[in-house]
Amino acid sequence: GAVVSQHPSWVICKSGTSVKIECRSLDFQATTMFWYRQFPKQSLMLMATSNEGSKATYEQGVEKDKFLINHASLTLSTLTVTSAHPEDSSFYICSARDPPPSTDTQYFGPGTRLTVL
Amino acid sequence: GENVEQHPSTLSVQEGDSAVIKCTYSDSASNYFPWYKQELGKRPQLIIDIRSNVGEKKDQRIAVTLNKTAKHFSLHITETQPEDSAVYFCAAVQGAQKLVFGQGTRLTINP
C-alpha cells in the first residue's frame, strides 16, 4: 500500500521555540494532506487541510499563525509549531490522500510526539 | 458540520467471542466510512471501509455494516484474538476526504 513518512518521530523542545514537522508521501502524489493532533487517550482532531500550491484550510479554533502549514510539492507538507508552549505537547499525525483514479484513500504517517518543556 | 458518535468507549470480551462497535453520524452527505485500529503510540491503520452504496462488507474476521437511513454503521470482529486488543476509531468522510473521527473504543481481549 501507499506509504507516508513523518519526520521527526519525536521531538523535545523548550518553551518559546519553533518546531517543524515534515510529512511525505513516498510512492504517490498527494494533492491533499491533512494534519491531526491527538492528546493522550483521545481521538484524532483535524487541525487543517493542506492543498498543494494553495493556503491551508484551518479548522475552527486552530490558530493559523501558530500552526504554519506549507504544502510546496505534491509529496511534502510541513507543519511548524511556532512559539511552542507546554500545552502544545501532543501527538501530531499527518495523512495524505492518494487521489482518484488511484485508491482515493487517506494514508497516515507514523506520527510525531512533541514535548514542550 | 459532521458529528460522529462512537460507542462503547471501552469493551472487554473473552478471546474467541465477538466484538461489536457502533457509530452514528449526522451528515447524510457523508459517503465513506473507514475503520481504523490504533495501537499505543502508533499510527491509525485502516482495517476496513465501506462506501455509501454498499450495505455490508466483510474481510475475514472483520465486517462492517451500514444503515444509511438510520445513519449508523458498525464494526464486527468475530473469533477475537489477543492481538485484536487496541483502540478502534470509526470515521465519516464527506467532500474532499475530510475525516471526522469518533471518540474511539478501547477493545481488550481477555485470554
What's the gist of this structure?
The complex is a heterodimer of chains A (117) and B (111). Chain A is mostly beta strands. Chain A has no helices and eleven strands.
Q: Give the SSE order of chain A as H and E letters.
A: EEEEEEEEEEE
Find the structural class of chain B using helix and strand composition: mainly beta
Largest interface: A-B, 21 and 19 residues
* Proportion of residues in helical segments of chain B: under 10%
> Got a strand count of chain A?
11
User: Any idea what the radius of gyration of chain A is?
Assistant: 14 Å
How is the secondary structure organized here?
The complex is a heterodimer of chains A (117) and B (111).
Chain A (H helix, E strand, L loop, with lengths): L3 E4 L2 E4 L5 E7 L6 E7 L5 E8 L5 E2 L8 E7 L2 E6 L8 E9 L6 E4 L3 E5 L1
Parallel strand pairs in A: 2-11
Antiparallel strand pairs in A: 1-3, 3-8, 4-5, 4-9, 5-6, 7-8, 9-10, 9-11
Chain B lengths: L3 E4 L2 E5 L4 E7 L6 E7 L6 E7 L4 E4 L2 E6 L4 E6 L8 E9 L3 E4 L3 E6 L1
Parallel strand pairs in B: 2-11
Antiparallel strand pairs in B: 1-3, 3-8, 4-5, 4-9, 6-7, 7-8, 9-10, 9-11
How would you sum up this structure, described in words?
Chain A is built from no helices and 11 strands. By secondary structure, chain A is mostly beta strands. The termini of chain A are far apart. Helix content of chain A is 0%, strand content 54%. In chain A, strands 2, 4, 5, 6, 9, 10 and 11 form a 7-stranded mixed sheet that branches. A 4-stranded antiparallel sheet of chain A has the order 1-3-8-7, with no helix packed on it. Helices cover 0% and strands 59% of the residues of chain B. Chain B is built from no helices and 11 strands. By secondary structure, chain B is mainly β. Chain B has strands at 4-7, 10-14, 19-25, 32-38, 45-51, 56-59, 62-67, 72-77, 86-94, 98-101, 105-110. In chain B, the strands form 2 sheets. In chain B, strands 2, 4, 5, 9, 10 and 11 form a 6-stranded mixed sheet that branches. Classes of the chains: A mainly beta (117), B mainly beta (111). Chain A binds chain B through residues 32, 34, 42-46, 49, 91, 93, 95, 97, 104-111, 113, and chain B through 34, 36, 41-46, 49, 89, 96-104.
